[in-house]
Write a structure and sequence with these properties.
Blueprint (H helix, E strand, L loop, with lengths): L2 E3 L7 H4 L2 H8 L3 E7 L12 E6 H9 L13 E5 L12 H4 L1 H4 L13 E9 L4 E5 L4 E8 L2 E6 L9 E2 L2 E2 L20 E6 L4 E4 L4 E6 L3 E8 L19 H17 L4 H19 L6
Antiparallel strand pairs: 1-12, 2-3, 2-4, 4-5, 5-14, 6-13, 7-12, 7-14, 8-11, 8-13, 9-10
Length: about 290
């Protein structure tokens, strides 16, 4: 289950990371950012653009409500999700991408050093809402400055979240379109508010939707809790399904393709038998 940890020792970042300090510490290095004209960012429809700004300029813009200089509109929203030097090959690690700021951070030691996967530096404009998604690794969301609201959904509620890959099509979880997504009402929502200094433990496979209620800075730390060989070696974000799961889905897709050779009534019958077999062999008993 997710849990909010309070009173953790996170280092000097909780007092030092003001807009002025952040701007001065990492200076004018260029960063690739998301820019959106609307608060709700949708990764599926890509209702945002990628732009590059000097880090100090980006921080000051992200902290503003109205912008004198902008790409799309005067009230556009900004979001930084740090990546490795080559996002296709390298993981995000604050010690490498933002070494000066990394000195201010103390990551809670709840996992072995060899289990460490990534430390993702995040900065969000006030009001920005990120799409609902799951990750395949356990992680800590360390809220350094600002306030966030996080809505969470159990993995068992996946059938009600209208998934496309690792992401939910239901963007507005507060006012969902129930004509389009009628099953969403069955998904049980858990919610918490993160204040500066709070740490949210998000277990692998738990869906989360995050709103930055204020301009905020966070560090997201992921670690491998499964054997290392379970994970996709090409995964630099921590969101590719484990290799065994990917293989199983590919096999299922081939099986469904094979069923198309049958007449409809037979296809329906054997598809239902397949579902029953999956439920019998793979579902957890305590999931109902």
């Amino acid at each position: 289950m997710p849990v909010v940890l309070k009173g953790m020792e996170l280092g000097a970042c909780t007092t030092k990371w003001t807009v002025d300090y952040l701007s001065q510490a990492e200076g004018s290095k260029e960063v690739k950012i998301h820019v959106s004209a609307v608060p709700q960012m949708d990764f599926l429809s890509k209702n945002f653009v990628y732009r590059t700004l000097p880090f100090d300029v980006f921080v000051r813009r992200a902290a503003e409500v109205k912008h004198k200089e902008y790409f799309l509109s005067e009230d556009e929203k900004y979001y930084l999700r740090s990546v490795g030097e080559d996002a296709r090959k390298d993981i995000a690690d604050i010690r490498k991408q933002f070494p000066i700021l990394a000195e201010d951070v103390q990551i809670p030691e709840y996992f072995e050093k060899e289990q460490f996967f990534s430390s993702v530096f995040r900065i969000s404009s006030a009001g920005l809402q990120l799409w609902t998604h799951y990750d395949v690794m356990d992680n800590f969301l360390m809220q350094v400055t600002g306030r966030k609201r996080v809505a969470l959904y159990s993995p068992r509620d996946a059938p009600y979240l209208y998934l496309s890959g690792t992401k939910s099509e239901v963007l507005d979880v507060d006012n969902p379109d129930l004509e389009k997504y009628p099953l969403f009402v069955k998904a049980k929502r858990y919610q918490c508010f993160l204040e500066a200094g709070d740490v949210l433990f998000i277990p692998a496979l738990w869906f989360h939707n995050v709103i930055s209620e204020e301009f905020g800075v966070a560090l997201n730390v992921f670690w491998k809790h499964l054997p290392a060989e379970s994970y996709d070696k090409s995964d630099t974000y921590g969101n590719k399904d484990p290799t065994a799961a990917s293989r199983a889905i590919q096999i299922l897709d081939r099986a469904l393709k094979t069923l198309e050779e049958l007449p409809e009534e037979y296809r329906d019958f054997y598809a239902r038998r397949m579902v029953l077999r999956i439920q019998e062999k793979a579902y957890r008993n305590d999931y109902g």
